[in-house]
Design goal:
Layout (H helix, E strand, L loop, with lengths): L3 H11 L10 H15 L2 H4 L20 H31 L16
Helix pairs in contact: 1-2, 2-4
């Protein structure tokens, strides 16, 4: 049986709207906001904010304690998970913007 998150992704993806013109905007935007919310990354994608995505921290030194390494591993896994979700939102955006309009958003995709 699929997980709740996987089912949420399928529901959002199956009801996709292609953003081709201004009349598509409200529904398209609402669906992308919902998708980013389900992924847990709307705070990074919301165009009204300037919150930057996390960066993956450098590894501790080989001589650092096991506790420091474990803390780094937990934090890094969370950072990578967030970055992966942001990438999935970016792919969803690219997949649902009309091909003729993709050049208009090329510089914005890093944001989400």
């Amino acid at each position: 049986m699929a997980s709740s998150s996987a089912l949420d992704d399928q529901v959002v993806s199956r009801a996709s709207v292609i953003l081709e013109n201004q009349s598509d905007w409200k529904l398209w935007y609402s669906m992308k906001k919902q998708f980013a919310t389900v992924k847990g990354v709307w705070e990074y994608c919301d165009p009204s904010t300037t919150k930057q995505p996390p960066t993956v921290d450098d590894e501790p030194l080989d001589t650092d304690s096991e506790g420091k390494w474990r803390k780094w591993e937990i934090k890094t896994n969370a950072q990578r998970s967030t970055l992966k979700a942001i990438g999935e939102v970016n792919l969803e955006i690219m997949r649902t913007v009309a091909r003729s309009k993709l050049h208009l958003i090329a510089d914005l995709l890093w944001r989400c």
